[in-house]
Design goal:
The chain has 12 helices and 14 strands. Strands 1, 2, 3, 4, 5, 6, 7, 8, 9, 10, 11, 12, 13 and 14 form a 14-stranded mixed beta sheet that branches. The protein has helices at 11-24, 36-43, 77-83, 99-115, 154-161, 183-196, 206-224, 236-246, 276-282, 290-300, 322-336, 352-355; strands at residues 4-7, 54-63, 66-76, 87-95, 120-123, 135-138, 165-176, 199-200, 255-259, 265-273, 305-313, 341-343, 347-348, 362-375. The protein is an alpha+beta fold. Strand 9 and strand 10 form a beta hairpin.
């Protein structure tokens, strides 16, 4: 039976596109579904500010009237200008273990990219770094996180068969929360505070964080992440969007913000209770009842595991012990709250400066994911 490719043209087809992998991975104990409502906002061109500088189309693969695969084709013009590339991206890719299905999906995106003058295809990537990226190549027996992609072990085998090669890898760590704060971190933190006239900012509410440091927070992301693989600067509209999306759910005990003598934000560490199990119970939907599982995990009976979402230090303060201030501040709360472990989430494998921050932890590098590339 032949494979039929259908371009997503309406909201009904977009719903089919998003929900495909929810059914595809049904019963898989490691799969964590995306929150449907967030994914709609990401993929709809009238809701995602990234479409100011991105183009995209989505495709479904059918066989005998049944969906057997999906893929998104994306061009981030800002990233191409930044990195001097002429590349398209693929993302939101899932498929059954079938050569014809896989080849047809990727031929569709490759042709789409060529028609638009692109000479390279990279992925899995999203519109920006704020979207999930990287295909899992190690750690298939470990539960995913809300911020990462899960896929079957046969996915990377098909990528290699089609001539795709490694572009970059990300590694992920599982970190054990220590039983007590580290004397070294306490000592270094005090020294750094005095030497550079820094302090950890305290807040009474999330609204205060958003009002005082919302824009500074994402401008810090722009500055600190500018040299990381595939990064493109967040626009003002994107920053406004992310302030509304993320800051209302921050638990102030799980975030640390370091400011200088002029009250400028120079570093931050932001974590969140793991929502993996809650998303699984909610089946990736906020409504009609999924909100209860998410609210319970965030506010009523939180899990004992955290996800690190963001860690950033201004370049001029890196390697000066500012990380010690962040972790000294956070660890006390982690211990008091009875937390057991922390997922680092993906870090570029060559980002040794970031990985060195975990040296004091009992840790396990338990997952690896890859961005592939192919010349067109």
């Amino acid at each position: 039976m032949s494979v039929n490719i259908v371009k997503v043209e309406n909201n009904r087809q977009l719903k089919t596109f998003i929900r495909f992998n929810y059914e595809f991975y049904k019963g898989n104990s490691c799969f964590v579904p995306e929150l449907y409502e967030d994914t709609v906002n990401t993929l709809r061109k009238d809701r995602n500010a990234a479409f100011e500088f991105c183009d995209a189309d989505y495709f479904l693969a059918y066989r005998d009237g049944k969906v057997v695969g999906r893929i998104a084709a994306i061009i981030n013009r800002r990233a191409n200008e930044t990195w001097g590339h002429n590349a398209a991206r693929f993302g939101w890719v899932d498929f059954i273990d079938d050569k014809e299905v896989v080849d047809t999906l990727f031929e569709t995106v490759e042709n789409w990219a060529r028609e638009r003058g692109m000479t390279e295809l990279q992925g899995p990537l999203g519109f920006t770094d704020m979207d999930p990226e990287g295909m899992l190549i190690e750690g298939f027996d470990r539960m995913g996180t809300m911020a990462t992609i899960y896929n079957h072990p046969y996915y990377p085998k098909h990528m290699e068969r089609m001539g795709y090669t490694k572009d970059v890898d990300w590694v992920e760590y599982l970190l054990k929360v220590p039983e007590k704060r580290w004397e070294k971190a306490i000592r270094v933190s005090a020294i750094v505070e005095r030497k550079y006239n820094l302090r950890v900012a305290r807040f009474k509410s999330r609204a205060e964080v958003a009002r005082k440091y919302g824009k500074q927070l994402f401008n810090l992301v722009n500055e600190c992440y500018s040299e990381l693989y595939g990064f493109s600067q967040l626009s003002e509209r994107q920053i406004e969007q992310y302030i509304k999306m993320y800051l209302p759910v921050i638990d102030l005990k799980l975030a640390s913000f370091v400011v200088d003598k002029d009250d400028n934000l120079i570093a931050m560490g932001v974590s969140i209770y793991s929502l993996a199990e809650a998303l699984r119970k909610a089946k990736g939907r906020m409504f009609p009842f999924g909100w209860w599982h998410l609210a319970k995990a965030l506010f009523i009976k939180p899990p004992k595991r955290l996800d690190f979402l963001l860690v950033a230090v201004k370049p001029e303060y890196q390697s000066k012990g500012v990380f010690a201030m962040i972790f000294n501040d956070l660890l006390g709360n982690f211990i008091d709250m009875g937390l057991v472990d922390v997922e680092s989430n993906p870090e570029l494998e060559d980002n040794k400066k970031m990985q060195s921050q975990w040296d004091e932890f009992e840790k396990e590098q338990h997952k690896r994911r890859r961005a592939f590339k192919k010349q067109l």
